[in-house]
Amino acid sequence: MLYMCQKTRGRLKTEASQEKQQEMQSLTVPSVQAMVAATGRATVPPRYLRPAEVVAGDSEAQIPIIDYQRLLLELELDHCGEESARLHRACQDWGFFQLINHSVPDDVVEGMKISIQQFFQLPMETKKQFALERGQQEGYGQHFVFSEDQKLDWADMLYLYTQPHESRNTKLWPDQPANFRSTLDVYSGAVKDVSDSLLATMTKNLGLKREAIADKCIPGMQSVRINYYPPCAQAEKVVGLSPHSDADLLTLVLQVNHVQGLQIKRNGSWLPVKPVSGAFLVNIGDMFEVFTNGRYKSIEHRAVVDPKEERLSVAAFHLPNVHAMIGPLKEMAAHEEDAYKTLDHESFMKLFYGRKLEGKSFLEQMKLN
Ligand SMILES: O=C(O)CCC(=O)C(=O)O
Ligand SMILES: [Fe+2]
């Protein structure tokens, strides 16, 4: 997720801020993909092993399906119709939905999928050219590791700032495969448009004016986390991505190949999600929960891995602009007490990146009382 703008990057010179950066800097961990290539998928070091029951899922979740074209039509007509009402219920009751008929062209989605798969097939030496730099969040590696005895996720990732353009550190944007950068550029813009329209409908569904939430994202921020989960013969004993909620407003996840693995926590159980072909999996993030004083809640989710096949996904995180304050909107909390603190954007993200992923524990720190 994105917390540092270009201007801020240049400011990280003082000793105090360097110390702070180091505090929140994730420890470097080995590439799981390289480990699997060297030792085989049956070798699982103890740092990755979790109690078997922790990984078990329940029945498949039938999460709501929302039709984007219908939403757009209702938005254009300035009319809260059936699809907007379905979206409102999905946000309130699930915090998660599948978005069909979205406007990101098939060739852009397919191009993105191919580029990502090709990137992870590159030799380790090449991928390392884009490695996470000390004190930064962007690059190839892993986040959220703060102690030598912390359990590790069975995955590698590539994390990049994508919007606005000025936030991009193109040095860390892979130049292989050849069209990676241009594909990500087009993909990120198209996905941001979808997110902006969803936020506009959601803002309206909450009875708010556009400027309350939707306009805070124009120009808003977007980052992508590209997840690579190698196969693991002891898949039932490892976790690909630890249980967490996303820190942003709205996340759009693209399932890259046919291997499933996303699970959501609902009524205390882990429900595996079966992605509809061509759909985005969309979820509410912590910032949305804070803005709405808990009306729309972020949802805890995780990724499990497959015993035989690799799995890949791309999460696009959408956040307000860097100047936005993150706290309960006065319009939402007019007749009730604020349930969350208010922080500036950068402090909020530092808090998120300064601790390991553990369910919704990050948001607990934002709660008042
Ligand atoms: O791999 C997935 O399906 C989920 C990814 C995710 O939750 C994330 O990157 O935050
Ligand atoms: Fe997530």
UniProtKB/TrEMBL annotation:
<dbReference type="GO" id="GO:0016491">
    <property type="term" value="F:oxidoreductase activity"/>
</dbReference>
<dbReference type="InterPro" id="IPR044861">
    <property type="entry name" value="IPNS-like_FE2OG_OXY"/>
</dbReference>
<dbReference type="GO" id="GO:0046872">
    <property type="term" value="F:metal ion binding"/>
</dbReference>
<dbReference type="InterPro" id="IPR005123">
    <property type="entry name" value="Oxoglu/Fe-dep_dioxygenase_dom"/>
</dbReference>
<keyword id="KW-0560">Oxidoreductase</keyword>
<dbReference type="Pfam" id="PF03171">
    <property type="entry name" value="2OG-FeII_Oxy"/>
</dbReference>
<dbReference type="InterPro" id="IPR026992">
    <property type="entry name" value="DIOX_N"/>
</dbReference>
<keyword id="KW-0408">Iron</keyword>
<dbReference type="InterPro" id="IPR050295">
    <property type="entry name" value="Plant_2OG-oxidoreductases"/>
</dbReference>
<comment type="similarity">
    <text>Belongs to the iron/ascorbate-dependent oxidoreductase family.</text>
</comment>
<dbReference type="Pfam" id="PF14226">
    <property type="entry name" value="DIOX_N"/>
</dbReference>
<dbReference type="InterPro" id="IPR027443">
    <property type="entry name" value="IPNS-like_sf"/>
</dbReference>
<feature type="domain" description="Fe2OG dioxygenase">
    <location>
        <begin position="217"/>
        <end position="320"/>
    </location>
</feature>
<keyword id="KW-0479">Metal-binding</keyword>
<protein>
    <recommendedName>
        <fullName>Fe2OG dioxygenase domain-containing protein</fullName>
    </recommendedName>
</protein>
